[in-house]
Design brief:
By secondary structure, this protein is an alpha/beta fold. It has helices at about 1-5, 35-50, 65-80, 80-85, 95-105, 175-180, 195-205, 220-225, 250-255, 270-275, 290-295, 305-320, 325-330; strands at about 55-60, 85-90, 115, 125-130, 140-145, 150-155, 160-165, 190-195, 210-220, 235-240, 240-245, 260-265, 265, 280-285, 330-335. It has a single domain (about 1-135, about 195-225, about 265-345), classed as Rossmann fold. It is about 35% helix and about 25% strand. Helix 2 crosses helix 3. Strands 1, 2, 3, 4, 9, 13, 14 and 15 form an eight-stranded mixed beta sheet that branches.
Length: about 350
């Protein structure tokens, strides 16, 4: 998964500045239009005022071509000039192609951009946020057998196909991870263990000296993710907005490596526990729908009949409709060095489906 997605020459993400949208392989909230970024900007502005610091580090991890950053900065520039002047924007992106595309995307906000690199900054006073980053980090695929936990490895069949072979776990950390999450896989159940997501959360929590951590992704609490409901695991590949299917016994994620997205659902329990262990306070986990509604999403959409207004209403529907981005995506909010703030994004219903 690491090679297929992030190899510097052949990796799926490394080779292109953008993989989402109508002409890509999957949709994100950013592709719906600027509403998502505008609402995040209102939350970030509130966070800046709570911190009461002259400068505000705004760090987007997995920034892609900078489209979400542009939407955030566009809103701030027009609607909150004081906040805009305080922003020190850091874009974190591993793909050189995407980093190159950021220059044009963010040309109008050049004065607000501090850096565009592949690494998180060392000391953040502000916000670290990531939208659909953790689900694309490489996972370990495991299965529980009558002989205990086994890990799936990638091997080559005699006919040259990539295939799975089960063997002993590559690290004791896999069993420790499940124990730490308080779950026990039943025999025959497959699952994914995202050690990389936990490691990334730890780095982000340590980099955040004072401020907030905002993570948006699709996933479940550990008790559900590792239950019989997901007995076949959640590892999936996408190409042209279609989930991959096995071919001649080869799992979809092995059939066309480097040319399709590979993803799995995030274990929200382990991410939350890691952030807390590194000094963060968990403020809440909720469906994206209720987070965006609390921020005033419905107030931004008019009832007019123009093409632009119609598109805006369709964007609203996409962001809120049950079973779509609004309910599948979860928002996790953490604070560090800030005493029990009351955030607008958490002021409404806090439902987690």
């Amino acid at each position: 998964m690491s090679l297929a997605l992030y190899h510097p020459e052949h990796g799926y993400y490394a080779r292109a500045a953008r993989r989402t949208g109508r002409n890509g392989d999957f949709f994100t909230s950013v592709d719906v239009g600027p509403l998502f970024g505008a609402l995040l900007a209102t939350q970030f502005a509130e966070m800046w005022r709570l911190l009461d610091e002259p400068h505000f580090d705004l760090v987007e991890a997995g920034a892609s071509n900078g489209q979400l950053a542009r939407d955030v900065l566009d809103w701030a520039q027009v609607n909150d000039a004081e906040f805009y002047r305080a922003i020190r924007f850091h874009l974190v992106e591993s793909s050189p192609a995407a980093r190159a595309a950021q220059r044009e995307m963010l040309a109008a906000h050049e004065s607000a951009i501090v850096a565009s690199t592949a690494r998180l900054p060392d000391a953040v006073h502000g916000v670290v946020y990531a939208n659909e980053l953790l689900d694309a980090l490489p996972v370990h695929s495991v299965v529980m057998t009558e002989h205990g936990l086994r890990e799936h490895y990638v091997d080559i069949a005699e006919d040259g196909r990539l295939i799975e072979r089960a063997g002993r776990p590559s690290t004791e950390a896999l069993e420790k991870y499940l124990a730490g999450a308080g779950v026990e896989l039943q025999p025959g159940c497959r699952a994914e263990i995202n050690l990389a997501a936990v490691a990334w959360t730890a780095r982000a929590s340590m980099a955040l000296h004072r401020g907030f951590l905002v993570l948006i992704d699709y996933g479940h609490k550990a008790q559900e993710l590792y239950s019989a409901t997901h007995a076949t695991g959640t590892l999936t590949s996408y190409q042209r907005h279609t989930a991959g299917v096995p071919r001649s016994g080869t799992p979809a994620w092995l059939s066309d490596p480097g040319n399709s997205d590979i993803t799995s659902h995030v274990d929200l329990t382990s991410v939350e526990r890691t952030a807390i262990e590194l000094g963060c306070t968990s403020l809440g986990i909720l469906d994206q729908t209720y987070f965006l509604l609390a921020l005033g999403l419905s107030d931004l959409v008019s009832g007019g009949t123009s093409l632009a207004e119609t598109r805006q209403r369709l964007a609203l529907k996409t962001l809120l409709i049950p079973g779509g981005l609004g309910s599948t995506h979860k928002v996790m909010l953490f604070a560090k060095g800030v005493e029990a703030p009351r955030l607008r994004g958490l002021s409404g219903m806090r439902r987690l489906t």
